[in-house]
Specification:
The complex is a heterodimer of chains A (about 180) and B (about 325).
Chain A: H1 2-21, H2 25-45, H3 49-74, H4 81-86, H5 89-113, H6 125-133, H7 137-158, E1 163-165, E2 174-176
Antiparallel strand pairs in A: 1-2
Helix pairs in contact in A: 1-2, 2-3
Chain B: H1 2-32, H2 48-58, H3 69-86, H4 104-125, H5 129-160, H6 165-170, H7 182-195, H8 207-210, H9 220-245, H10 257-278, H11 284-313
Helix pairs in contact in B: 1-9, 1-10, 2-9, 3-4, 3-9, 4-5, 5-7, 5-11, 7-9, 9-10
The chains are: A mainly alpha (about 180), B mainly alpha (about 325).
Chain lengths: ~180, ~325
């Protein structure tokens, strides 16, 4: 099990690094997908098959497809000159400091909590569902409200009146048809 | 040893069916459209498959110079590997499966959502406007239909109380799930056709408008992989319909379980071909509209009603 874990972890690290360093946007996204897949393998090894499956279905399967969709639409392929100008040393000093704090925190935690074998028990989908709808029901409800608000907002932004440009009225008169029956 | 034999058996069965479907589909289409179909090569035209395969292997395998080469080569491989991986959790008969997984249904859904990449990336990497249009359509269509493909199966999961395909089949000993889950079945069937982008929902390829859609630039065996991948997808969806709604390998004892499984699957494969022979293609916006406005609410309602009835009768 440990070997598989190390392989998956190494894959995740390498592919995330390549995703950040890559110049071609689509190739970077492909590496990010690979990283998500290897993280899902880690979840599976740690005994959370449900989370592993959801990681693939939602992150790798849906969110990343939307990313690729947007990149295809915007047609951003290779690196551009403007991006080079954006990446001044000034820009990455603050993230570097924040990252260092996080790293120190992480090393400290590893030092203090080392050699504690985490209990390896497999958590089945049913247990996840039960705890989501009993212990954490408030969190689920709040997340649901947030998503609903997001949907309503997206609908409001995307809503527009139906425009029909008629083939024979060449003056491009826009006739508003309130309720177009199919 | 027996494990390796099972893997080899599953691979052999799936690839044989997929290759055989090339012949069977053309022959059945011929029958239903009142013409002959391929009947020259060998008895009843049976060796047409071999002729097609030889032809496709010896065609020039051309990678266009303007394409994004690594992604272009990767795309058809993703399609084949995701579908073949899903067959790992399909139980053909009791004991005859590669992996007896507790999350088999989720595994299938995850793989089918990864399968979108092959088409999207293939279309994008071709660097061709028709391919890109096909890829756009494919990604929108498959994202939409994936959502309630998963939701339509949740009724079955609730009734069987498990994500495990073997347990789902065992739970159907006293009645197939097609009867309590008819709405779920219809939604899954429609979503399955859209996921495999078969006619009438082959809008990503739409020969009349987009040359050949996302695989316009593909030739030789790379095209062949898209082609065979489509048939493997059809086989997979038919097998899953059989497992989820029609009792899998269960049947009267005069035939062995595996024969029942293949008979039921064959019926659905023929149904897929019949759909192709008879239905016209809907418009793109109609497909999306029906998906979001009718099928998604229906799938949610199905879950709600199933859950409520289960709670009431427990």
């Amino acid at each position: 099990m440990n070997t598989i874990f190390y392989i998956a972890a190494a894959l995740a690290l390498i592919s995330t690094g390549l995703a950040i360093a890559g110049k071609n946007a689509i190739h970077s996204l492909l590496f990010l997908i690979l990283s998500l897949l290897s993280i899902s393998v880690i979840f599976y090894i740690l005994g959370a098959p449900f989370i592993a499956a959801l990681e693939i279905i939602i992150y790798a399967g849906a969110v990343m497809v939307l990313f690729i969709f947007v990149i295809m639409m915007l047609n951003v392929g290779m690196e551009r000159e403007t991006e080079k100008r954006w990446l001044k040393p000034r820009m990455w000093v603050v993230p570097l400091i924040l990252g260092t704090i996080l790293l120190i925190d992480f090393i400290f935690m590893l030092k203090t909590m080392a050699h504690e074998e985490t209990a390896r028990q497999i958590i089945l989908p049913k247990q996840v569902g039960v705890s989501l709808f009993t212990t954490y029901v408030l969190g689920v409800e709040i997340a649901g409200m947030l998503l609903l608000a997001g949907i309503v907002g997206a609908y409001h932004l995307g809503r527009q009146k139906k425009k029909v440009i008629h083939r024979f009225l060449k003056k491009e008169e826009i006739i508003e048809v309130p309720n177009l029956k199919k | 040893m027996i494990f390796i034999l099972i893997i080899a058996g599953v691979l052999f069965i799936v690839l044989t069916i997929a290759a055989g479907l090339i012949y069977i589909e053309r022959r059945l289409l011929g029958l239903w459209q009142d013409r002959y179909g391929p009947n020259r090569v060998g008895p009843f035209g049976l060796t047409q498959v071999v002729a097609d395969m030889i032809k496709i292997f010896f065609k020039e395998d051309w990678v266009p110079p303007f394409s994004d080469r690594p992604v272009f080569v990767l795309a058809p491989a993703i399609l084949i590997s995701t579908i073949l991986l899903t067959f790992a959790v399909v139980p053909f008969a009791p004991g005859f499966n590669v992996l007896d997984s507790n999350i088999a249904v989720l595994f299938f859904l995850g793989n089918s959502s990864l399968g979108v990449y092959s088409i999207v990336l293939g279309g994008w990497a071709s660097n061709n406007k028709y391919s890109l249009l096909g890829a756009m359509r494919a990604s929108a269509q498959m994202l939409t239909y994936e959502v309630f493909m998963g939701l339509s199966l949740m009724g079955v999961v609730m009734l069987a109380d498990s994500f495990n395909l073997r347990e789902i089949v065992e739970a159907q000993r006293h009645g197939w799930f097609i009867f309590p889950q008819f709405i779920g079945f219809v939604i899954f069937l429609i979503a399955g056709i859209a996921e495999t982008h078969r006619l009438p929902f082959d809008i990503p390829e739409a020969e009349g408008e987009l040359v050949a859609g996302y695989h316009s630039e593909y030739s030789g065996m790379k095209f062949g992989m898209f082609f065979v991948g489509e048939y493997m997808g059809v086989t997979l969806i038919s097998a899953l319909i059989t497992l989820m709604f029609f009792g899998g390998w269960l049947g009267p004892a005069f035939l062995p379980p595996i024969v029942w499984f293949f008979l039921k699957t064959a019926v659905f494969i023929c149904f897929f071909i019949l759909l192709r022979a008879s239905l016209p293609r809907p418009r793109y916006d109609q497909l999306m509209g029906v998906g979001w406005k009718i099928l998604l609410p229906l799938a949610l309602l199905n879950i709600l009603v199933t859950g409520a009835l289960l709670l009431y009768f427990k």
